[in-house]
Amino acid sequence: MNDSPDPTGRRELRHDTSYLVLTREFRAPVTDVWAAVTESDRLGRWIGTWTGDPASGSVDFRMTYEGDGSYVGRYDIDVCEPPHRLVLRTHSAGLSWHLELDLAEADSVTTLTFAQVMSDPEIAENVGPGWEFYLDRLVAAETGGDVAAIVFEDYYPAQADHYRAAFG
To answer: Which of 53, 48, 32 has the alpha carbon at shortest distance from 112?
Structure first.
């Protein structure tokens, strides 16, 4: 990419809790988008892979596009309602992350609403551009685009001010 994409994320208050919320739309059935965000091999095309047994309530997730790809974190699965809702928690580097993915299909378009609890506004300037980057990679992977053409440097630091202002 030559220019930084416009940031799309916003701050949303849910039950007195601050969330970072981003949406992406797909001309695909909800079951296909669900597979793209839950199946390890499909996740591997844009963010990373998981191992383990989801029926146990947790999986180990390896982010393959983060640094040297050696980061592995355990994700607890709090809610799994295929193909519409997935809620995950993880603890990493002293931070707790609570992620919610909601999918809805209407008129042959599936909307993915991604939300993360943002209890520490100091990290929003990094986390917001990070999720913009990964979700754009998801869109590219699912639409036949060039995932490798989406580079983090186009998102950060260019989008940092947007997220700093939204959560500051």
So the answer is: 32
In the block, residue with structure tokens 């008129």:
107
List, in sequence order, every residue forming a beta bridge with 109; answer none if it has no partner: 106
Indicate the pTM of the whole model.
0.94
Tokens, residue 51: 């191992």
Domain ranges of the chain: 10-29+78-167
**What separation in angstroms does the CA of 13 have from each of 22, 54, 101, 146?**
13, 29, 16, 34
Mind listing the pLDDT tens digit for each residue in 127-161?
999 999 999 999 999 999 999 999 999 999 999 99
Counting Cα atoms < 13 Å in the Cβ hemisphere of 129 gives: 20
Contact at 8 Å (CB) between 135 and 127?
A: no
Q: Which of the 8 DSSP states describes residue 69? A: S
Q: Looking at domain 10-29+78-167, does it have CATH number 3.30.530.20?
A: yes
The CA–CA distances, whole Å, from 102 to 15, 34, 58 equal: 17, 9, 19
**Tokens at 24, concatenated:** 């992406």
